[in-house]
Amino acid sequence: MAPGSRGRPSWQADGCPPWCVSEHREDDHPDDRFHDSAPALVPSVLGPFGVAAELLVVTTRRCDTADDWVFVGHPERAAEGLVLSRESARRLARAILAQLDP
Asked: Where does residue 71 rank: exposed (0-12), middle (13-18), buried (19+ CB within 10 A)?
């Protein structure tokens, strides 16, 4: 597939969700076949020692599946992040807002 092409590779049975910004290629490894949203980097202060960090927030879905996930965590340490269903992410957002605005 030509660079910049938004055509569908032969392995991709589903269309992209409207939020997907991934460039799917014919030679994508099967473990790397995901729909991903545009990432949001959120400047953050972590822990009691005030460590500055950026948190990555992105919606993702494995190609050819129906479940969307929201990842929140350090961009370089994905194993330490949260991977939440959309509804769980909504509940978490409401709970955080409730803590900030009692």
From this structure: buried
